[in-house]
Amino acid sequence: MATEGTSRSSSWPRGDTRKKPTAFLLHTLLFMCVAFRVAAALIRVSYHLAAGSVLGVARVLFAAANDRCMRCMNQAALGRSATGTFCGDLPVGAMANSWRVLMQGLASLMFLCARADEYVRPPPSPLVLTPHDKPAAHPQQVHISTVGRNKMRISWVTDDRDAPSVVEYGESQGNYTASATGDHATYKYFLYESGAIHHATIGPLAPSTTYHYRCGKAGDEFTLRTPPASLPVELVVIGDLGQTGWTTSTLSHIGGADYDMLLLPGDLSYADARQPLWDSFGRLVQPLASARPWMVTEGNHEAEALPGAVGFAPFLAYNARWRMPREESGSPSNLYYSFDVAGGAAHVVMLGSYAEFEQGSEQYAWLERDLAGVDRRATPWLLVLLHAPWYNTNQAHQGEGEAMRAAMERLLYEARVDVVFSGHVHAYERFTRVYDNEADGRGPTYITIGDGGNREGLALKFLKDHESAHLSVFREASFGHGRLRIVDETSAVWTWHRNDDEYATVRDEVWLESLASPNLSMPTAHRHDQEF
Asked: Keyword Transmembrane, does the record have it (predicted)?
């Protein structure tokens, strides 16, 4: 299994040998600090070795050094320094390189210690920061989203704030037969000011058709394919994506097989108020997000709220950068909305775990209206995505989705929702059909898929004696992604693909029958050996 975290290392200032001793001393002190913390942790390591826990060794070693060094890693990868901190201009590159080497060594040690046939869950991976080295008027961070039945929103950023918000497009490469003009805006977050964030809606477009397009009359040409107007359709689902070496692995596996649309139930960039990380994330996902629609909803890491600070509304960057079809679905907020797939054969509802959801709230009223408008005779598949899971046997984030479940679960049950996807917990878990904490053949199948590759690592501990453990069909703490292929009006197949070495290994597979089907039977599962 390869771990790839990239960073730019600083070099010694050329022609200034007087600075070398100072830099070397600081570098040495930093590395000694890390070495001391790791050495102190070796006492705990011996316990884990005695217990035969390779994962325990990795977690202890990583935790010993990660918190103190990650700030330096981030700054080195961005080519920046932290004035007034211990990560100064001179040692930061060398420190980042030492940390990278240490992590690679730990990963290698894990695989040497493990049995040849034993899957070893990876430690967190350093950030992978994607630079932009093209002219200011050239588009970057290009991503697309579906709007209505036959239109597509193109979103991109330019450093040139006067660049035109125009998209030219056509079915032949370099031959643009139509164009659309949109709008752009910027936002400020303390000393950071974004580039121009453009949005333009193109269409009407033919289904299952490849279009070539160019943004802002400058830069590269991009290619997209519109979703089909009927079944079958294939949806990729990933959560808690981030921008690490494991993220790049997940994205590579996704891009290795065809699909029609990607759904992401929150926690995109993990910028957490570091606004340049939004830019880096947009550039990282651009190869996939510019070619197929990415439909997202917010997670807790999108909030970036500053209590008491004037002018910094929650979800400021998220709402500016990832505009979703809330107007088209009658939603008052970009934090929750809905849309149709495959000509209306499937209806997808994106809920907001961090918007008001109690009975009497705007989101609750909107959800009632939206579900009431779904005709299950014409729309046999009904899917819901949200961030904080309503059912969860992992130790992480216990009970955080309970209030929302208590408020809204009845609405989903009465509408016969087929599947509910969530993220937040950095692991994979699939439940049987459930309603009100009991197995119920008319309830949704609940799936947690918060394992896209985030910087915080995996949530390793599942609770065997949890009150919902008997409802949990499969659970595993590994990075990966999922695919829902809706075959026809009655049948769909869900597969979860673990990031196993260089390949996406199918670890869980289940056939689902639409709850709109008159001949409903319980799902049939395959390949789901339990791992705790």
From this structure: yes
| Cβ-contact 512, 489 below 8 angstroms | no
Provide the 8-state DSSP code for 186: -
**Are 423 and 267 contacting, i.e. CB atoms less than 8 angstroms apart?**
yes
Residue 44 scores a pLDDT above 50: no
What tens digit of pLDDT does each residue of 9-22 get?
333 333 333 333 44
Domain 136-226 grouped into CATH 2.60.40.380: yes
HEC string of 74-135 equals HHHHHCCCCCCCCCCCCCHHHHHHHHHHHHHHHHHHHHHHCCCCCCCCCCCCCECCCCCCCC
Q: Where are the domains of the chain?
A: 136-226, 229-513
**Sequential DSSP letters for 404-460:** HHHHHHHHHHHTT--EEEE-SSSSEEEEEEEETTEE-TTSPEEEEE--S--TT----
**pLDDT per position as a tens digit, 392-422:** 999 999 999 999 999 999 999 999 999 999 9
Annotated active-site residue in 138, 143, 253, 397 = 397
The architecture in CATH of the region 229-513 reads: 4-Layer Sandwich (3.60)
199 is catalytic: no
Beta-strand relationship, 419-422 and 445-449 = parallel
* Integer Cα distance of 73 and 96 in angstroms: 5
- Say which amino acid occupies 151: K
Six-digit token pair at 370?
A: 């939206």
Kindly report the number of other CB atoms within 10 A of residue 360's CB atom.
8
Give the C-alpha separation, 153 to 165, whole Å: 12
User: For 266-414, where are the alpha helices, taking DSSP H only?
Assistant: 276-289, 316-321, 362-372, 402-414
